[in-house]
Automatic annotation (TrEMBL):
Protein family (similarity comment): Belongs to the glutamine synthetase family.
EC number: 6.3.1.2
Biological process, per Gene Ontology: glutamine biosynthetic process
Protein name: Glutamine synthetase
Amino acid sequence: SCLLKPANKSVIIQFKMMSLGGSASTSLNKTVTAKYMSIPQPKDKVRVLYVWIDGTGENVRCKNRTVDFIPKDPSQLPTWNYDGSSTYQAEGSNSDVYLHPVRIYKDPFLLGDNKIVLCDTYKYNKKPTESNNRAACLETMNKVKQLEPWFGIEQEYTLLDIDRHPFGWPKNGFPGPQGPYYCGVGVDKVYGRDIVESHYTACLYAGVQICGTNAEVMPAQWEFQVGPGAGIKAADDLWMARYLLHRVAEDYGVIVTFDPKPMEGDWNGAGAHTNFSTKTCGWLPMEGDWNGAGAHTNFSTKAMREDGGITEIEKAIDKLSRHHVRHIKAYDPKQGKDNERRLTGRHETSSIHDFSAGVANRGTSIRIPRGVAEEKKGYLEDRRPSSNCDPYSVCEVLVRTCCLEN
Ligand code: ADP
Ligand code: MN
Ligand code: MN
Ligand code: MN
Ligand code: MN
């Protein structure tokens, strides 16, 4: 048969649930919605959507509240709480988790003075929750302020149809092999550009420092980039951009996954592909291998950006080479388990087991972009972080290794 081999069992379970009717909200009459959304909002009321990271460390949650002033700074917004026992963050008997507003964005869905506020989360004892890596990251960034660290993150992701099959892929087979899709154009090359453009627009309006987008190597896979942002800004922007992407895709009835290897490449292993035929599949791939998804993290300090900064970049790479395992543990939410599926040494990745670096080489852990090597200053690209990484953990460990040596 031509069934895809799902990346893991939870995908199968979700597949079954989704086929019972996961697209309910997309099928609602949007004209009726427009009628209500055109009702004028009272001038003295502002809607604020609190967004936070849940206990998985990779999914985001949100809830609304009304305030009667226009918030300019997160400190003006009330701390709030939610039921942490419903987000894998607390026991039912002691379930209140605190929300601390940390960065305000304009709401691209409601417009006007309405806001979306990114929050971090604290337990009953005022300590950060286990999935709040922002608190520690901010502390580390404050220690190295004078070095002016900048980050730019390339977020790759995959669009899935409501049945969790990659969006736009033939239902009974596969698209042709990788090659024509990366930065492609045309209905047979790229799937879902409406979502990408809508998301781009929403990010710019919101105040997310999105700096670009492109179609990726695997069809239905895309990338956007944020940055370069100083300190914690790029990581905040990345989380808000992820939230906005889920919301935009919700409007289109499409699912966004940040899984680092949504289509595992071994479904045609052991010669099984010889059983495929164009009669049963419609489309016959030459190779059953599909790229995974990463979150390449570009990093620089003031010294790296100055003339001759390449020597600083080389020093940082030398330090990184001595802490490979520590970085791998920080580069996905499962201490390296997720990245094991992606960092195979194939599909423009380096092996999870080895550290390597090179100029313009996309099969290494660290890449020095060609332009940086030529100008002898700029930044380095760490290609190891997984698409579902927590950018707070990634940025923090980069600073620890390269700037603090602990
Ligand atoms: P590629 O696909 O070639 O690896 P992209 O254009 O997708 O590169 O992404 C480049 C990233 O590098 C962007 O996120 C950008 O913000 C970031 N960047 C550019 N200059 C710097 C810098 N000096 N320090 C840190 N990040 C940077
Ligand atoms: Mn309630
Ligand atoms: Mn890129
Ligand atoms: Mn990419
Ligand atoms: Mn890159």
